[in-house]
Design goal:
There is one protein chain. This protein is an alpha/beta fold. 34% of the residues lie in helices and 15% in strands. The chain has nine helices and nine strands. The strands form two sheets. It has a seven-stranded mixed beta sheet with strand order 3-4-5-6-7-8-9, with helices on both faces. Bound molecules: zinc ion. Zinc ion binds next to loops.
Length: 279
């Protein structure tokens, strides 16, 4: 007889209350703890100090183009490893790692779409992929986009977020992209077509020294770090203290290097007006 059978209850072990990961982000500038949902709704701009967080290339496309209007070019173009580059990590490993982390094949997304109803070519570099640096794929995709814009007499917008400049893993092949993109832009300009360059944090090195630096109109997001060599290296080289805010958007606007600083919330509207007036 099962008089002393198994007890008819179960033991519930209460877990310590867990805070789900990925709910909060600390502002990189003012250190405020921000609720991710609030940050998303605010276009990834800190509501307290206006710090503009990095956007992925697709987030940027979504922000700027009319819904469902984007037609992407050359999505599957991938890089070769012409130098068989070996470092702490080989180039092949680095590419595979960043492809997995970002879902991108390389550091630029390009295509055509509508901005405020107007047809444009848009390319965006993504600083999460080898710091948004320019190798053969970035250079080739940009050049094809520029040439398509020239051929079809369309305005062109390139958004740069490239802390890495020219990609060292491809050596001279990367450096050649500076000349290639600039030459393609020359023909675009020769056809009296509009090219707007948008600089976001950070845009440096060979990217700043080529296509990003030669827009007909150069726009920057607030407080972005923009330049060729970073401030720390310059300070070490010239052994002088640099002025406050050196290489930030506001400093460059004051010194005539860029035309206008536009807050992310205002960007699409202002671009739409520029396109209407100038293209
Ligand atoms: Zn902040």
């Amino acid at each position: 007889m099962a008089l002393f059978g198994k007890p008819k209850y179960t033991i519930v072990r209460l877990k310590k209350k867990e805070i789900p990961e990925g709910l909060w982000t600390k502002c990189e500038d003012c250190s405020e703890t921000l609720y991710n949902k609030t940050l998303e709704e605010n276009m990834k701009v800190c509501p307290k100090c206006n710090y503009h967080f990095t956007l992925s290339a697709y987030e940027r496309v979504k922000l700027l183009l009319d819904a469902d209007s984007f037609n992407e070019y050359d999505k599957d173009m991938i890089s070769a490893d012409p130098l068989d580059f070996k470092g702490p990590k080989s180039y092949k490993e680095k590419l595979a790692q960043d492809q997995l982390a970002t879902g991108l094949k390389d550091a630029v997304v390009s295509g055509e779409g509508l901005l405020g109803g107007k047809k444009v070519i848009l390319a965006v570099t993504d600083s999460r992929f080898i710091m948004g640096s320019m190798g053969s794929v970035v250079g080739e995709k940009l050049t094809r986009s520029i040439e398509t814009a020239t051929k079809n007499k369309m305005p062109l917008i390139i958004v740069s977020g490239s802390g890495g400049g020219a990609r060292m893993h491809e050596g001279m092949y990367s450096l050649m992209q500076m000349a290639k993109t600039s030459a393609a832009l020359y023909y675009h300009r020769k056809n009296k077509l509009l090219y707007i360059s948008i600089l976001t944090n950070p845009t440096m090195g060979g990217v700043m020294a080529s296509f990003a630096g030669i827009g007909d109109i150069t726009i920057a997001e607030p407080r972005a770090l923009l330049g060729f060599t970073g401030p720390r290296v310059i300070e070490q080289t010239i052994r002088q203290k640099l002025p406050a805010g050196f290489q930030r958007s506001e400093f460059l606007l004051e010194h005539g290097m860029i035309d206008i600083i536009i807050h992310r919330k205002q960007l699409k509207q202002d671009l739409s007006l520029l396109l209407e007036y100038l293209s």
